[in-house]
Design goal:
Blueprint lengths: L5 H22 L6 H8 L3 H4 L6 H25 L6 H14 L8 H14 L1 H27 L9 H21 L5 H11 L4
Helix pairs in contact: 1-2, 4-5, 4-6, 4-7, 5-8, 5-9, 6-7, 6-8, 7-8
Length: about 200
């Protein structure tokens, strides 16, 4: 059998991964079997196993992708010049969660919730997830430092504390979007501003 080009190999690997996302979105990690994923790909089992040797590998790749997309969003916000405002950052996060790949048959924000549960079960996933969110907190703290430097935060504000609040809010955005009516970006910004007046 001739060797696949790198591009074709990547395309087929991505096809397997997206097929897994569709199954995971519908049934979660543990209720989805490799047979389910293989059927969704329309490929033979031997072809699928060329790209992922087990469901665990697919779960790991899926968790990595769902986290990386959030990381890319935050890195893009941090790279903007001028630095986006708090309202713009919150709006970008809310939009990211609300859109949830509406044009696709999968939802990586929903899968992120499954990935958090997997992190509680498997130490190696927990370590990767911890390291990822530690990096996210650094990005958010850097944004807060920019706001402080620009005079958009109170002079005595602690950028690291602001980053911690925004980091804590991010999983809440995802969970509330799926389980209750999610708050709008305007509501969240108003609420955050209101908390600043609490004594």
């Amino acid at each position: 059998m001739p060797r696949l080009s790198t591009e074709l190999w990547e395309q087929r690997r991505q096809h397997v991964l997206v097929s897994a996302w569709q199954c995971f979105t519908r049934d979660g990690f543990h209720a989805t079997s490799m047979d389910d994923i293989i059927a969704a790909t329309g490929m033979s089992s031997s072809a699928v196993y060329r790209y992922f040797r087990s469901k665990s590998e697919l779960v790991d790749a899926t968790a990595e992708e769902s986290l990386q997309r959030i990381g890319n969003l935050l890195a893009g916000l941090l790279a903007q010049d001028p630095t986006p405002s708090l309202a713009e950052v919150v709006e970008a996060l809310v939009d990211y969660v609300a859109k949830r790949n509406k044009d696709e048959d999968y939802d990586l924000s929903k899968i992120a919730v499954y990935a958090w549960a997997e992190a509680l079960r498997r130490p190696e996933v927990r370590t990767r997830t911890h390291d990822f969110y530690a990096g996210v907190r650094v990005h958010l703290t850097q944004l807060a430092q920019c706001w402080l430097d620009d005079g958009r935060l109170a002079p005595d504000a602690d950028p690291d504390a602001v980053g911690a609040v925004l980091l804590t809010m991010l999983p809440g955005l995802i969970v509330t979007q799926h389980l209750v009516d999610g708050a709008s970006a305007a509501q969240l910004v108003e609420g955050l501003s209101g908390l600043g007046s609490v004594r």
